[in-house]
């Protein structure tokens, strides 16, 4: 999954970006509202982390503008304001959540997971598709009695597939959602991670299939309707 971090404090931004990258998230950093608009013009994001005080404007205006345009990307506001009225105002403007400075990275990570889970309509960390069980919190997949642990990028890729089973994801889209602008990777990286996931879910009815010339989809074996080949 790919996040946009809008924060003008360089030290804090680098710390947040690097910490989330360890969890397998691709994070683009914008140090102003103008830079954020440039990022949004070139990519789509699963979550926006938004500071309030920015050098070229107020983050609240950015938030209000996004919601008035009916852009529903989840937004967590990073704020130094701790008054209840300020936090209520942010939520009324359309923020999905907020976190006050200074904050613990574990809390930020948990809030990111919770917001994404709510946006995807999931009340639990555990999801099932066919005979495949996926626990995003413990980073495991289970087929029958076989439980396999997922590394960070594998976890994020599995989250994408579970967000829309049976949907075909082009390689370019998966690349955009897993990696940031700063990471110089090719579409071959997607093949590597898909191959690892296939090994870990092998033995069940669920497959990650290659749709020739298009991309990948997660499907039940008996539901395949499109001719596919492994790379």
Give the topology, please.
Layout (H helix, E strand, L loop, with lengths): L1 E5 L3 H13 L3 E5 L2 H10 L4 E5 L1 E2 L2 E2 H10 L6 E5 L4 H10 L3 E4 L4 H15 L6 E4 L2 E4 L4 E4 L2 E4 L2 H12 L5 E2 H8 L9 H14 L4 E6 L3 E6 L11
Parallel strand pairs: 1-2, 1-3, 3-6, 6-7
Antiparallel strand pairs: 4-5, 8-9, 9-10, 10-11, 12-14, 13-14
Helix pairs in contact: 6-8
Features:
231 residues, alpha/beta, Rossmann fold, Arc Repressor Mutant, subunit A, four-stranded antiparallel beta sheet, 8 helices, globular
Task: Please tell me the CATH architecture of the largest domain by its name.
Answer: 3-Layer(aba) Sandwich
The CATH superfamily of the largest domain turns out to be Response regulator
- Alpha-beta content class: alpha/beta
Q: According to CATH, what is the class of the largest domain? A: Alpha Beta
Instruction: Figure out the total of helices.
Output: 8
> How many strand segments?
14
Q: How much strand content do the residues show?
A: 25-35%
Order of helices and strands: EHEHEEEHEHEHEEEEHEHHEE
Using only CA atoms, what is the Rg?
19 Å
Q: What is the mean predicted local confidence, pLDDT?
A: 89
How would you write the strand order of the largest sheet? 2-1-3-6-7
**Poorly predicted runs of 5 or more residues:** 223-230
Instruction: Tell me the overall shape.
Output: globular
**What is the CATH topology descriptor of the largest domain?**
Rossmann fold
Largest sheet: 5 strands, parallel
